[in-house]
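During the first year of the project, the team set up a workflow for recording each protein of interest as an amino acid sequence followed immediately by a discrete structure-token representation. This format lets reviewers and collaborators read both layers of information side by side without switching files. As required by the reporting guidelines, we include two representative entries from the current panel. The first entry is reproduced here exactly as it appears in our internal archive.
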Amino acid sequence: MRIPPRITRLGGSAALLSLLIASGPVTAQAANPATTSTTAHSATAFRAAAVGSVCYSALPSQAHDTLDLIEQGGPYPYEQDGTVFQNREGLLPDRSTGYYHEYTVITPGSDTRGARRIVTGEQTEEDYYTADHYASFDLVDHDC
């Protein structure tokens, strides 16, 4: 299984800053029931705002295990680990196919892969955690 290259060596804060710069401006607007159309720009801004952040120390221990395996290059517990993540939900910043890869975060007591994943980007420490099978993402801050 090929591990995606981490092309830039950045700390967690710099990685978050570069993510925000690459994503462009993010604005929040109150919903207006009288408005029936949504521009592509505001839809993009809403999706970018859907990515939160989480401290590395606040992740479940199994996510730490998964991040350690990614750094070591495996072996991974599931055949699907390391495969390309398509970002079909459009919640992560828009990148070319092959930019993101997904890895299972083991859920104790689950007979399946469960809903928890780490999705990595190509940059160092560009790791996203989802506990709800891609309904939401948090960028992992490795400095806290």
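The second entry, processed by the same pipeline in the following quarter, appears below.
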Amino acid sequence: MVNDDKTLVADTSAIRRIMAEAENAAPALLLLSGPSELVGKQWPLVGPELVLGRAPSCEIYVDDPKLSKNHARILVLDGRVALIDLNSTNGTEVGNDLLRPQQPRELQNNDLVQIGNLVFKFLERGSLESVGIQKTFERSQIDALTQIFNKGAYLTTAAELYKRARATGAQLSVIVFDLDFFKKVNDTYGHQAGDYVLKALAQLVHDNCINDGAFFARYGGEEFVVLLPNSSLTVAADCAESIRAWIEHFEFVFGGARLAVTISAGVAPLNDAMESAHDLFELADQASYASKRGGRNRVTVAQPI
């Protein structure tokens, strides 16, 4: 038996690529401690001015009761970043220093910013750490099979968009759809065929039906959801019909067999009676079940409450 223990020659292209990405990385605030679904998220500081707070209109928005609605202002100039406490209730600490209200404090790389139980870390422009952490966080938001957003990412985004829409009066609509008779595909052709359908469908919808600003995620199993901020019910219904038609006419072929794939979809808009993003999802989900009861391969628009 031959033991080939030679050292392989490393491919340095990955290092060069990361270095190039770091050169273009903006300064950022990274959340180290806070709401579990946001830990690891970073906000690029592309200014010239951003507000941090719990008001949905803030550029750096975190829904935490220790934050004031408009807690602090961040100024960005030529890569230098300054933080200003806006007379907040609980104050703002950088390192162990409590900031004086309305007095700018220039941030240095790796400075820790503490507000109540929230802890942010400042990363300077061009930080390699910023690039690595961002990639890790993005992977945590992606469904491993379909490579679109996962349920956790949807829940966080839906809650934020709901609160922003409530605060600003903006429109918000959602599409919920799942595959018709998907169990039959798995039972007849095997789970590999089912996985193929889910991946191909996600790619098809993402490439042809999802516009800038829309948020497309796999909610679970064969169920998908599309969030449409600043979109009326009419726009959302047209989008859902486009998705349905693309899927119906696409040739899903696995192992030489043509698979018939259709969806049942429901569409709902945000209305005054809703108390959470979950209420919006539930209304669209009920409409999708109406599509199933009505014969499947169709779109149902939820009736106003």
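For the second entry, the following points were noted during internal review. The mean pLDDT is 92. The two ends are 75 Å apart (CA to CA). Both points are flagged for discussion at the upcoming steering committee meeting.
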